[in-house]
Amino acid sequence: MLDYDTEAAVYDATRGGEPRAEAAASAVLDLIPSSAHTLLDIGCGTGLVTERMALARPGLRVFGTDASYGMARVARRRIGTVALADARRLPLPDATVDAVAAIWLLHLLRGEGDARAVVSEAARVLRPGGVFVTTVDKDAAHDVGSDIDVAFAPYLNADPSDAADLIVRYGSEAGLDVVGEAHFLGHGQGRSPSSAAHTVRAGYYASRLRLPATATERLAAVLTALPEPDRPRADPRYRLLALRRRD
What we know:
Layout: H1 4-7, H2 17-30, E1 38-42, H3 48-56, E2 61-66, H4 69-79, E3 82-84, E4 97-102, H5 114-125, E5 126-136, H6 138-141, H7 147-152, H8 164-173, E6 176-185, H9 193-202, H10 215-224, E7 237-245
Parallel strand pairs: 1-2, 1-4, 2-3, 4-5
Antiparallel strand pairs: 5-7, 6-7
Helix pairs in contact: 2-3, 5-8, 9-10
């Protein structure tokens, strides 16, 4: 698992930067009613997407939470109001906000019941009629039919924690119904074989791959032997779901 306190310093530069953030923010806002006055971005990371949402809709009060001190510190410089908090136990009363966003978060929650707990917390803090917008099937979005995906195939996790059907079920249990979906391009996230090998060695794919001790170097070697090792393959296309809290 990555140390996100350390990762905060390079996160934006290695994750598509502003173009990816702009695409994500625009897609999220398309799913949030214009009548919403408050939006909580849980797992806001460096706040780059959060900031873009705030700038794009000035009448919307946007604030965030993150469990990493390093991430929250960077986000606070961008959006001001950021709480250091576990997304499974949000520091807010019931029915407080009009919208909740969770972008690139649920796929990381591999602990038993963690993703369900986050969806339940989002539902708890939403006002009736409020909307929860979240990425689903995040790791699967990186499967663009490339030679890298062929190399990854034997090691893929069979039970991603953000599978759309799971999140829909967790939402229903918590009083949330699906009301929409959207997609956006992960600008700058197309992998090259050499970058994929580097990130495999660094442990970036902990949520996507199951790699026994001896498999990491074996997979990295397969990746670096692929043709055109420095050419990025296609960018991923991420999926968002919007779930509305029942009145």
